[in-house]
Each structure stands twice: as structure tokens, then as C-alpha cells.
Write a structure and sequence with these properties.
mainly alpha, about 230 residues, elongated
């Protein structure tokens, strides 16, 4: 059973995630240039603020796993099968994010920069940068199932949640928006249909994080308050 306290905890996670994403945006503004070279990006990733950014984002994925758990399993009842399917979809997203962010942090931001700093061989340094490029290529490929799984989960939640209480429309609407955002981005990046180009995506990314997780937090707090009232009346 999803309790009001669990919903409040999930709402707090939404707020913390917004703060982490804001910090990430600030870190990116400290990059050496708007379009850094591979070497500049690699060396910037080894800086303390970049490592802190990656560490916070990695930790956030465990928080999102709990958030999606609360959202999906509160929708139980006659929608139990759909709720489980949504949770599996969100779990795939979280698992892939945790794996990719762990490799990014511990391999490309901690291990490889240390090796790079301790070698003066041009061939060895070029090989290190080659490994970084290969990871980025793998990351790009894996972001397809990662994004698709969150897209599916978002659409399922948008359509299965009941319309009552009426504040459930907050969650239904924001999940529909999130699903559409991800779908348009998938079509742009992987199908070559330019529906959500990079410049627009980069501009809207943080505002959409605020909107998505801000509205989700509001819904969670309102839902928790509603549940407490029902418990007090019974």
C-alpha cells in the first residue's frame, strides 16, 4: 500500500531532483567553451565540480526509481497489470541510467583522467581519448531504449490514472507532456525527423524539468493530503 508518507517522500525527491538538475546546468555553464573539443570535455569532466555533478545525478536515479514506484503502484486496482508494465518501463530507464552514469563517473571521469595525467606518451593519450569516444558512442546507442522505456511508462501512466479526484489531471497531463517530449526527441535523434532539434531541446530542457517534476511534486503533496483526510474521516 502506498501511504501518504511515501507520497510526501516522493514529492521531496522531485524537489531535490530539480535542485540537482539546476546544479548540473550551472556546471555546464562552466565548460571551457560552448562547443568544447573532445580533450577539453574530457579534462573538464575530471574537475571536482563535474565529478560532484555526476555523483549527484547518479544518486538521483535511485531516487527516481522510488518516485516511479510510488506513482505506478498507487494506480493499482483494476489497472494493476498496466501499472506493473509502466513500472517495468521506468525500471529499465533507471537501470540503464545507473549503468551509464556509473561508467561515466568511475571510468571516464575518475580512472581515465588519472591514467592520462600519469602518461606522457602521445599514443597512450590518444588511446585513452579513443576509449572515451567509444563510450560516448555506446552511450548514444543505449539512450534509445532508455528514452523509449520512459516514453512508454509515461504514456501508460497518463492514460490509466483515473480522472477522480480531479487533481489527478495534474499527473495525467504532465505524464502525457513528458511522453510527447521524449517521443519527439527520439524521432529527431534516431529517426532523423527534425521535430525537436538540439538548439530547442537544450533551451527547453531545464524549464521542462522544473515543469515536469514541479507538477509531479504538487500532485504527490495534494494526493497525500487527500489520503490523510480520507483516513481521518474513516
Amino acid at each position: 500500500m502506498i501511504t501518504p508518507k511515501m507520497k510526501i517522500g516522493a514529492g521531496v525527491i522531485c524537489i531535490l531532483y530539480i535542485l540537482v538538475q539546476t546544479f548540473q546546468w550551472w556546471v555546464f555553464t562552466k565548460a571551457p567553451s560552448a562547443n568544447p573539443t573532445l580533450l577539453e570535455d574530457f579534462l573538464f569532466g575530471a574537475k571536482c565540480i563535474s565529478i560532484l555533478r555526476s555523483s549527484l545525478m547518479l544518486a538521483s536515479m535511485f531516487g527516481l526509481f522510488y518516485l516511479f514506484f510510488v506513482i505506478c503502484f498507487f494506480a493499482g486496482g483494476k489497472y494493476k497489470a498496466s501499472a506493473i508494465l509502466a513500472f517495468i518501463s521506468f525500471s529499465i530507464f533507471c537501470l540503464l541510467e545507473i549503468m551509464l552514469r556509473s561508467v561515466e563517473l568511475f571510468y571516464t571521469q575518475v580512472q581515465l583522467p588519472a591514467v592520462y595525467a600519469n602518461t606522457t606518451s602521445s599514443a597512450s593519450r590518444e588511446l585513452i581519448l579513443y576509449h572515451v569516444t567509444q563510450f560516448q558512442n555506446i552511450q548514444f546507442a543505449l539512450y534509445f531504449p532508455l528514452g523509449l522505456s520512459q516514453t512508454i511508462g509515461s504514456f501508460i501512466i497518463a492514460f490509466i490514472y483515473p480522472a477522480t479526484p480531479r487533481f489527478n489531471y495534474l499527473l495525467k497531463a504532465i505524464m502525457l507532456l513528458n511522453g510527447l517530449r521524449l517521443l519527439l526527441r527520439q524521432l529527431t535523434v534516431y529517426a532523423g525527423i527534425n521535430l525537436f532539434p538540439d538548439n530547442l531541446y537544450d533551451t527547453l530542457y531545464l524549464p521542462l524539468v522544473y515543469l515536469t517534476f514541479g507538477v509531479t511534486a504538487l500532485w504527490l503533496f495534494k494526493s497525500a493530503y487527500h489520503d490523510k483526510r480520507l483516513l481521518n474521516m474513516s
